[in-house]
Amino acid sequence: MKYSKQREALLTLLRSTRSHPSADWLYENLRKEFPNISLGTVYRNLAQLAENGDILKISTSANKEHFDGFVHRHFHFVCNKCDKIYDIDLDGMDEIKNQAAEKLNADIEDYSLIFYGICENCSSKKNN
At what angle do helices 5-15 and 23-30 cross, to 10 degrees? Predict the structure, then answer.
């Protein structure tokens, strides 16, 4: 992939937040540094970065895409009410991967896990 100042700024911005932003949020924030950048350019660069494994793409229950600049092994919880995405670090996932590989008689090279449900904040609002 050829170097691009805009792509580098996008990656830096994405790695500076733990909020799992949307392409629109990234676009609005990048426009401060690159006033002529287009939303299409942001989407194209996000697609390239995701394809190269430099970022993660996370789909919410509302079929919205969000992005994560932290690609170390971790998992996500997506709230079905507010669409907020939370990072989860879990132990024991290698055992599940090994069980899946054994059942499939396959060599699993990578895996991801996303939990969907109602977050604590939305649950407490429902109970009030």
Answer: 120
Token pair 């691009």 in the structure block, residue: 4
Per the listing, tokens 């609005």 go with 28
Q: Which tens digit of pLDDT belongs to each residue from 52-100? A: 999 999 988 778 899 999 988 889 999 999 989 999 988 888 899 999 9
List, in sequence order, every residue forming a beta bridge with 79; answer none if it has no partner: 117
Secondary structure of residue 128 in the 3-state scheme: coil
Backbone dihedral angles phi then psi of residue 86, each to the nearest 5 degrees: -115, 140
- DSSP one-letter string for 3-15: --HHHHHHHHHHH
Residue 62 CA to residue 105 CA, distance in Å, equals: 34
Each residue's pLDDT tens digit, 25-41: 999 999 999 999 999 99
In the chain, the amino acid numbered 41 is T
With CA atoms as reference, report the closest residue to 66 among 99, 31, 23.
Answer: 23
